[in-house]
Amino acid sequence: MTIQTIAQKITEGGMTNVTKVCLAILALFSFLAYQKLISEPKALEEKAHSVLMQMSWQEGWLEPFVLDNDNHTSEITIQKKNNGQLIANVTFKFSDDTHQICKHLSYSFTNDPLADYELLSQQDCL
Fold first, then answer.
1. Residue 122 belongs to what H/E stretch?
2. Where are the transmembrane segments (predicted)?
3. Of 45, 52, 53, 123, which residue is most buried, by most CB within 10 angstroms?
4. What is the largest CA-CA distance in the chain?
């Protein structure tokens, strides 16, 4: 059954009220699952990357505005804690003509606009 067929049956009155309610509930659960499983993790990863860039500038590893997509990579894993804090474990690599940086980092941050962070551990890559 295609979406067009479902829409046609709804408009023609070929569906019972129970079927309409079930479809509405299915649509709601689909939306909530998308938010929880796809949209929210992507937003958290973008926030963790933003905090990583802020940290790299504040710690003096990089100059602001020297990054582009070709000269750095980062692998981010995020863990949630009960009190709203998030912990990111990151492998960050950057290289250009003058710098070559590779770090394993662990930091905590909150998902709010202030982007405060606490650096938990830092190691240079081998």
1. strand 117-124
2. 18-34
3. 52
4. 69
Q: What is the pLDDT of residues 23-33, one digit of tens each?
A: 889 999 999 99
Closest C-alpha to 89, from 108, 73, 72: 108
Residue type, 95: S
Instruction: Output the pLDDT for position 69.
Output: 56
On the CB side of 9, CA atoms within 13 Å amount to 13
Fold classification of 3-124 (topology level): Nuclear Transport Factor 2; Chain: A, (3.10.450)
Exposure of 91 in the CB half-sphere (CA atoms within 13 A): 3
3-state SS, residue 59: coil
Please choose, from the candidates 56, 25, 60, 50, the residue with its C-alpha nearest in 3D space to the C-alpha of residue 112.
50
pTM of the shown model: 0.69
Region 57-66: what's the mean pLDDT?
A: 77
